[in-house]
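User: Please work through this fold.
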Amino acid sequence: MIAVDWGTSSLRAYRLADDGSILEQRRDPRGILACDGRFAEVLAELVGEWPGEIVLCGMIGSRNGWIELPYLPCPADAGALAAAMHAHVDARLPGRTLWFVPGLDCRAEAGVPDVMRGEETQLVGLAAALGGGRHLVCLPGTHSKWAWLEDGHVVDFATVMTGELYAVLRQHSLLGRLMTDNGHAFDEDAFAQGVARSGEDGGLAHQLFGTRTLALFERLPGEALASYLSGLLIGHEIRHRTPVPRDVHLVGSAGLGARYAHALALLGIGAHAHGEDLAARGLHAMASARGIAPA
């Protein structure tokens, strides 16, 4: 089978063996916003001669994607997601059936809905590796997800816009005007100061202004301010995910995951890192549950 993780800004495809192992993978920068609606053509170019039916997850199943699928409510496991997959046939991909995975929703906080698309597939892949028990998982990103896995089910989750808030403050606020690192340098001491500050009184809105005053009073150089801001925001994100167990599972890119692991360590919490290719494992688990791929 072919597993496809198609997000807003990127596209990854995997050719899988019967046991779910990855035989080959391809990446493409054409996320759903860069396709101009040419989803079938882009997919055909990417998977080319690969054989097998195609299972897709991510924002490709959203309102801005190929087909909009309703969200499946939590709790949900691989079997529930597999049963809710939608089969689609497109003449531009002859001889293939496309299977779209729905996202998940939950309404844990005051009835306000929360949603995910794509991360549920990574969580299913991780659940298969972790087995039973209760586990807290963080998927850092533009919109970070914190999810509870319990005996293979995604039972609850929360979205935190830390990555987007960081980008907006850097690019469109007074804070960013004092930063001189161009987004590349990482100052470990400044990051640690930000994490520590997140635990003090005053609230985030007040503490953010301190990023500016630390530079004005020459307490931090311009090249260290971005790291301080990152530590402050990630620190607040972690502190509000209460109660946090002794260990957290991190899923995502190595660079951003390393920052979260460092912040967790500063707060006395362990971290176990897992790669982004969990989506392929999750898609295989769903395909097996649906009878599309060998179990």
